[in-house]
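Sequence and structure are kept together here, with a separate record for every protein. A complete record is shown below as an example:
=====
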Amino acid sequence: MKKLKFRETVFVASMLFGMFFGAGNLIFPVSMGQMAGRHVWQAAAGFLITGVGLPLLGVAALGISRKSGLLGLGTQVGRKYGILFTCALYLTIGPFFAIPRCATVSYTVGIEGLISGEGGKLFLAVFSLAFFAVVLFFSLRPGEIMTWIGKVMNPLFLAFLAVLVIRALSSPLGKVGEIEPTGAYAEGAFFTGLLEGYNTMDALAGLAFGIVVVDVIRRLGVKEPEEVAGSTVRAGLFSAILMAVIYLLVAVMGAQSAGGLEVSSNGGEALSQIAEYYFGRAGALILAVIVTMACLKTAIGLITSCGEAFVQIFPKGPSYHKWAVMFCILSFLIANLGLDAIIAYSQPVLMFLYPLAVVLIILTLFGKYFANDRTVFQWGIGFTAVSALADGLRALPEGTRALLHIDVVTDLAGRILPLSDKGFGWLCPAVAGIVIGVIRYRMKRKRETE
């Protein structure tokens, strides 16, 4: 039975990390560090639970379940639900929101600082066209994704990031213990960090990238389902460890920078200020390479995942290459709407999908305790969907909420559902649904044995 060598496992883990770790994964922890100050360790602990733990569980769920991808997990609820949820998740973290955001974040944080003058929209169009041309080039070669991302792009990204982080940590602007926390981090650093990690939405990516990881492992000659599952989990674990280390280093860098720089309004601005302080004009170039590489490898991973997933969902439909081309074109068009528009409308969709993904992961991991009975999945997902819809509607832009006249409904849900003000209004209904499902499963088993 063929098993991955340690070196191969490291390369697969590097590929997975490369797909996970986009520019947003840098922006969130550096901003958190600046605001948390001396509470950075408590904030980081919460951040790691949701920013690293949940994505790892997503990859583990795919490995342990021995499913080939998200569609297989979703069909545990029902065939129609599996197709709808898989399409919605891939389109959301794919061409509708996440992939276009890769181009706009690369331009806004990494490139815009290198140019001056008018013509921002034109520059964005030119940059995003070149960005997606490169993404398409690599995406049309899915069999080489481990080589390009795991062996080339990710090491290059880590090398440039190391230059910035090591320089900042070796000459800190302040001592972490002397930096006063600001905002919500002053009183509830752990829970604020927990929500910050929740907002990375990497648990969705963990489910989406699983199909690529499984495919790469099989291309390396591993065929036995048990060994494919084990290799997937091991690669996910190595990737999670690397993510956790970088999150901690970047968060500390952010906290130290608050000793000499003003707390920035967002992580992109904070990174720009830190890079400029330590490297001057060259700092903008270093940051441009870091951010562009981070976004490029994530976009390639997402296009590849979406293409392979839609071939699996619609086996008689377009080929993988046609899906890849269509997704790149759609992503290019949406990217030119601008970063603000993408973020404004992605948040409500993610607030709805994320709880469904979390509950699906948990039920898959513990499925052996109720024989993966569909009743439990349906009750748990059903209760979660209703409450998550309220969270999603509440996250809509104010103008859209007013147009739809839904404030009365969302306000009522906010008063009824505990933790709604924290973005976790779905949690108690999800637990209730799972409990009801388990009770019904046991009653059914009892009737069958009588």
Notes: The first helix runs from residue 6 to 20. Residues 311 and 320 are 6 Å apart (CA to CA). The chain has 19 helices and no strands. The chain has two domains: 6-345, 366-450.
